[in-house]
Inverse folding.
C-alpha cells in the first residue's frame, strides 16, 4: 500500500518548505527558452537550408551552398544531441573563446540541431506546393527568393505546422540533456531537489507530470493554430 | 479579321532556337518574328514541343541555343536580367497557377507592388549616395536627385485601383477578397489573364489556356482573349481550339518534330495545308 499522507508531506516538504518550487520555475524557464528559441532558430536555419536544396543549381555559388547544406544536415542529424552539446561546450567554446551563459550556448546548439531536422520537414512542405505557382511568380518577373518567400513558403509552413509541432515536442523533451553542459533546466532542477533530501520518488514523478502538461499544452496550441489557418482559407 | 492597326515593328524575334533536355532534342531550330499587335496561334501534335517553345520565349526553360531578341536584348544571353524582361512578357498557364495563399486582389497586385516598391527603394538608396556625394561637391556642381513621384502608399493604392479596374472589366470585382480555391476554373483563368495584364506586358504567351477547363467555361476565357486581340495585344497562343485560331489569329504556326513545318494566315492554313503531317493532323482534329 502507498502511504498517501506520507507522500504528500514529503511533497510539501521538498517543494514548499525547502523552496523547491523556485528551482522548478527557474528550470521551467530555461527549458521553455531552449525549446522556443531553439525552434525559432531551427525554423529560420531550416528554411534557408531547404530553399538552398530546392534552388536551381545553375551557378557555382548555388552548387557550393548545396554542398554546404548537405554536410550541415549530415553532421547535425548524424550525431546525438548530447554529443553536439558536449563538443560545443568542451571543444568549440574554448576554441573560439566564447564566454556566454551556458543557456545561450544550449539555445544555439539546439537551434542548429533543430535546423537540420526542420530543413527536411520544410523541404517536404515546399515540394508539396505545386511548382506551377513558383513558375507563375517567376513569369511575372519576381526573383526566385521573392517568389519563394511571398508564395511558396507561406503555404509550405501552413502544411507543415503539425510536423513542426512534433519537432517542438521533441525539442522540449530533449532539453533534459542540456544539464550535461551545466544548464539549470527542468531536469536539473528536479535532480537538485531530489539530492537536497535524498528522496527522488516525488521529484521525478512531478517532473514527468510537468513534461506531460507542457506537451499537452503544445499539442492543443498546434491544433488551435491549425484550425485558425484552415478557417482563414475558407473565407468567402 | 481584326480591325487593329498593324505596324511592322517586330516585338519578339526568334532565330534558330534550339532546346535539348539532356540527349532529347525537342526544338531543332525555330525561326519566327512576332509583330506588334499580331496574334500567333501555335498548333501541333502532343509532345512536339509547343510548351517547350513557349517556355523558352521567357526563359522559363533555358534555351540551348539561338537568339531571342526582345526590347533590343538577347534573352538567351545569361548576362541579361531576365526578371526585368519577364515583367513585360505575360504568361498564362494551362493550370492557371494562381497564388493560393493570396486573395484575388493580392494575386493581381503582388508583382506590380514588388517591382514598383523595389524601384522606389533603389531610387531612395541612390539618392542617399548622391546627397552624400553632394556634400563634397561645389555649389554649382551638385548632382540632382532622382525624382520620386509616388510614395509607397500611393504606389500600392494606384496598383490596387488598377487591379479593381481590371477585375471590373471581367465582371469579378465582388471576388476581390476571395481566395482562389473558391473560384471556378473559368474564373481562375480569367484572373490569371488579368494578373498578367496588370504588368502592362508587351507580349503575352498562352499555353493551352482552355485545356484544363470544363467545356462550358471555355467560352468565357476565349472571349476575354479575343477582347485582348481586338485591343491590339501581341499574343502567342498554343491551343487546340482550331475555331478560335481560325477566327482570332493573324497567323497559324504548325510545329512538328522540333521545327516549324508550316505557317500562314488562318484561311490559307486551314483550307489549303501543304505539309503532309499537317494535313494528317488537321484531319484528326477538325
Ligand atoms: N523538363 C523536361 N525534362 C525532360 N523532358 C521534357 C521536359 N519538358 C518536356 N520534355 C519533353 O519534351 C517534349 C516536348 O514536350 P512539350 O513541349 O511539353 O510538348 P507539347 O507541349 O507540344 O505537348 C516531350 O517529349 C517531353 O517529354
Ligand atoms: Mg504542352
Amino acid at each position: 500500500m502507498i502511504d498517501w499522507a506520507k507522500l504528500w508531506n514529503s511533497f510539501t516538504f521538498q517543494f514548499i518548505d525547502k523552496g523547491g518550487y523556485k528551482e522548478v520555475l527557474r528550470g521551467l524557464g530555461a527549458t521553455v527558452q531552449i525549446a522556443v528559441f531553439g525552434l525559432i532558430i531551427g525554423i529560420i536555419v531550416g528554411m534557408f537550408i531547404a530553399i538552398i536544396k530546392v534552388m536551381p543549381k545553375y551557378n557555382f555559388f548555388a552548387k557550393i551552398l548545396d554542398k554546404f547544406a548537405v554536410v550541415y544536415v549530415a553532421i547535425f542529424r548524424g550525431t546525438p544531441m548530447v554529443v553536439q552539446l558536449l563538443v560545443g561546450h568542451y571543444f568549440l567554446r574554448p576554441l573560439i573563446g566564447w564566454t556566454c551563459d551556458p543557456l545561450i550556448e544550449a539555445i544555439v546548439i539546439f537551434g542548429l540541431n533543430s535546423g537540420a531536422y526542420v530543413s527536411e520537414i520544410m523541404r517536404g512542405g515546399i515540394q508539396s506546393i505545386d511548382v506551377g505557382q513558383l513558375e507563375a511568380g517567376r513569369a511575372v518577373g519576381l526573383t526566385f527568393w521573392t517568389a519563394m518567400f511571398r508564395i511558396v513558403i507561406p503555404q509550405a509552413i501552413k502544411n507543415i505546422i503539425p510536423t513542426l509541432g512534433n519537432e517542438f515536442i521533441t525539442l522540449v523533451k530533449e532539453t533534459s540533456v542540456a544539464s550535461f553542459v551545466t544548464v539549470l533546466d527542468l531536469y536539473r532542477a528536479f535532480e537538485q531537489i531530489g539530492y537536497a533530501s535524498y528522496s527522488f520518488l516525488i521529484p521525478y514523478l512531478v517532473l514527468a507530470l510537468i513534461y506531460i502538461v507542457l506537451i499537452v499544452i503544445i499539442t492543443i496550441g498546434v491544433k488551435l493554430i491549425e484550425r485558425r489557418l484552415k478557417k482563414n482559407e475558407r473565407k468567402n | 479579321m481584326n480591325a487593329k492597326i498593324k505596324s511592322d515593328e517586330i516585338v519578339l524575334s526568334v532565330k534558330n532556337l534550339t532546346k535539348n533536355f539532356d540527349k532529347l532534342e525537342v526544338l531543332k531550330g525555330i525561326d519566327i518574328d512576332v509583330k506588334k499587335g499580331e496574334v500567333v496561334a501555335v498548333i501541333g501534335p502532343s509532345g512536339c514541343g509547343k510548351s517547350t517553345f513557349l517556355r523558352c520565349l521567357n526563359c522559363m526553360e533555358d534555351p540551348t541555343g539561338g537568339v531571342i531578341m526582345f526590347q533590343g536584348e538577347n534573352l538567351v544571353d545569361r548576362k541579361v536580367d531576365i526578371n526585368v524582361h519577364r515583367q513585360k512578357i505575360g504568361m498564362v498557364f494551362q493550370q492557371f497557377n494562381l497564388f493560393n495563399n493570396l486573395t484575388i486582389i493580392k494575386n493581381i497586385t503582388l508583382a506590380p507592388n514588388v517591382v514598383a516598391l523595389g524601384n522606389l527603394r533603389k531610387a531612395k538608396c541612390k539618392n542617399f549616395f548622391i546627397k552624400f556625394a553632394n556634400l563634397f561637391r561645389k555649389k554649382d556642381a551638385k548632382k540632382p536627385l532622382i525624382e520620386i513621384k509616388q510614395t509607397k502608399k500611393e504606389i500600392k493604392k494606384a496598383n490596387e485601383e488598377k487591379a479593381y479596374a481590371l477585375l471590373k472589366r471581367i465582371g469579378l470585382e465582388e471576388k476581390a477578397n476571395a481566395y482562389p480555391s473558391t473560384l471556378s476554373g473559368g474564373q481562375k483563368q480569367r484572373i490569371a489573364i488579368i494578373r498578367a495584364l496588370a504588368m502592362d506586358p508587351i507580349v503575352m504567351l498562352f499555353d493551352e489556356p482552355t485545356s484544363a477547363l470544363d467545356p462550358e467555361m471555355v467560352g468565357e476565357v476565349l472571349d476575354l482573349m479575343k477582347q485582348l486581340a481586338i485591343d491590339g495585344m501581341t499574343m502567342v497562343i498554343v491551343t487546340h481550339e482550331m475555331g478560335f485560331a481560325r477566327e482570332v489569329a493573324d497567323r497559324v504556326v504548325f510545329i512538328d518534330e522540333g521545327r516549324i513545318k508550316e505557317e500562314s494566315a488562318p484561311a490559307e492554313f486551314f483550307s489549303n495545308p501543304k505539309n503532309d503531317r499537317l494535313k494528317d493532323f488537321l484531319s484528326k482534329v477538325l
Observations:
- The beta strands of chain B are 10-21, 24-35, 39-43, 65-70, 73-74, 89-92, 203-207, 234-238, 251-256, 259-264.
- Residues B 21, 24, 26, 44, 46-52 surround adenosine-5'-diphosphate (ligand 1) (CB under 6 Å).
- The longest strand of chain B covers residues 10-21.
- The mean pLDDT of chain B is 93.
